[in-house]
Amino acid sequence: MTTVTLRIVLLLSVLQRLAQGVPDAVAAKHQAAQLREQYDFVILGGGTAGLTVADRLSEAKLTRPSAETVLVIEYGDIEYGRGFFDPPQVEHAPGFPGASRWTFNSLPSPHVANQTAKVVVGKVVGGSSCVNGQFFDRGSRHDFDAWDVATGVEQFDRGEHRWNWEGIFPYFKKELGIPIRQECAGGDKAGLCWVPTSQHPTTSRRSHSGLGHYADVNATRDNYDLLVRHQAVRVLYQDDQVQGGRPPLVEVRSLSDGRLFNVTARLKVIISAGALHTPSILHRSGFGPAEVLQKAGISTVVDLPGVGANLQDHSASIIQSNYTKPLDLSPLPSDMYDPAVIADATAGFAETPARGPYTLAMRNSAIYIPLANMSADFESIIATIKQQLAKPPSDNAAQYLPPDISTSRAMMAGYQHQLALLLELHSNPSAPSLEVPFGGGTSLSTVNLHPFSRGSVRLNATHPLEQPVLDYRGGSNPLDVAVSAAHLRYLRRVLSTPTLRARGAVEVAPGADVATTEQLAEYARRSVHLSLHHPCCTAAMLPREMGGVVGKDLKVHGAHGLRVVDMSVALLLPSSHTSSSAYAIGEKAADIIIQEWT
């Protein structure tokens, strides 16, 4: 039996036990008594980035011959990560069985007809990589170059860690182990792209960090512990040593009995709870806007107004159409309702290698179009961005920031900096502004890849251990509505192509009567989906003077022994689904830490 075959057999065994509901299919700790007296690294959150950095740190030998001890604290448990279309699923439905998840409903956004955002994130070992749509694309090189652009703060610019495309591209490759190619995964992302999916290449089961960075390595690592069904409450500094001395203690709450206890880290505490939960841990620890903390009755340890601010997510409007001359092909999606087809497809999915329609993971192609190629609206949108930049921050940035930080000079400076970066991105004929994923059916989504509006994640002041309050503030910067209208106008041209005209494509929504820019903008306001489940940027990598929370080494400003490693550290939302970026951040963070300690 070859090594590859053996790994597949072992993987299938683990998957089968997890599918049967066996919680100990992979070893995990369930109570404080099972833990060591102390750990070298304590990681708060066992999601996409958290398990990636835990894997890399537990295999490294940093300060002594034996590898360092690593503890991951995870709210959820080990579960089977069902794929997007695993049998017997015929079509995707929001409530289909799968791994556990958090579901958030944001506050209403008055600028887009009081619509709310519904956001789903993973509540399971593996995090959102266990529940996402398995679309595994990368952002444009221009996205990451914008993360690393000169800020004018000399100490921040002088750092050795680069987060531009050249600085992060090796970590995308390390995760997948693929050669360099000139393709959409190589940084150039404008046009029609084939998009890989996060699946095992043989079994077609969902690939997620709970398998690749925990289950696959745990049996050979006696220094790697995972504590499940526990909440990381906060970090605690002793004797005013927030700027020096030992790393903080970690206060942990058992979900089974509510008991609180502390965990000691010898080298570093790493918060990796995701863009929606990392701010809550920081808030409960006394890091955040002083006004927000005061309302929750929490003493301020470090006043960082950027904690929980800068919330971004992809949004989309939809063009609906009918086809009067359907495709004469077989099989069609409708054939999956035939019991005989379902039975054969289910049997094929169980084979090794898997075959048939259930091996599909949502979609595998999309078009990416720069705003500069949408000539009808490009110049007016660019002119508006320049007008906003020409105003003093107090007259411009303040009105687009959440009210509780709108008077912060640091936050105003940071938003103006982002606006300048967005001007460059939207002016660039190679940097995509629009994504249109293809997956069959009669609807086309206009995904806004680089939003201008900024929301917030705030601690629930009356119930601080419960889920935070999300305020997406969709459309608070009117540029988002203008960009969405431009995307809708451009996408209409797809329906007029010879291919779709031959199929009798007829637009149903917004419809032929919605023709002017103002009408398209109003349609966008009332029809927009505010979240595509890609929240980011709530602990941004910027200088403290610009509202940043972490530096380029991912250390929390003003705090010793504390880092953040997840999508919350991104400055701008990348032009991609966020899974691959979360893996890459985890890989690069581990490299930074290993270099520091060796």
UniProtKB/TrEMBL annotation:
Keywords: FAD, Flavoprotein, Signal. Residues 122-145 form the Glucose-methanol-choline oxidoreductase N-terminal domain. Gene3D superfamilies: FAD/NAD(P)-binding domain, Glucose Oxidase, domain 3. Belongs to the GMC oxidoreductase family. SUPFAM superfamilies: FAD-linked reductases, C-terminal domain, FAD/NAD(P)-binding domain. PROSITE patterns: GMC_OXRED_1 (PS00623). This is Dehydrogenase xptC. Residues 1-21 form the signal peptide.
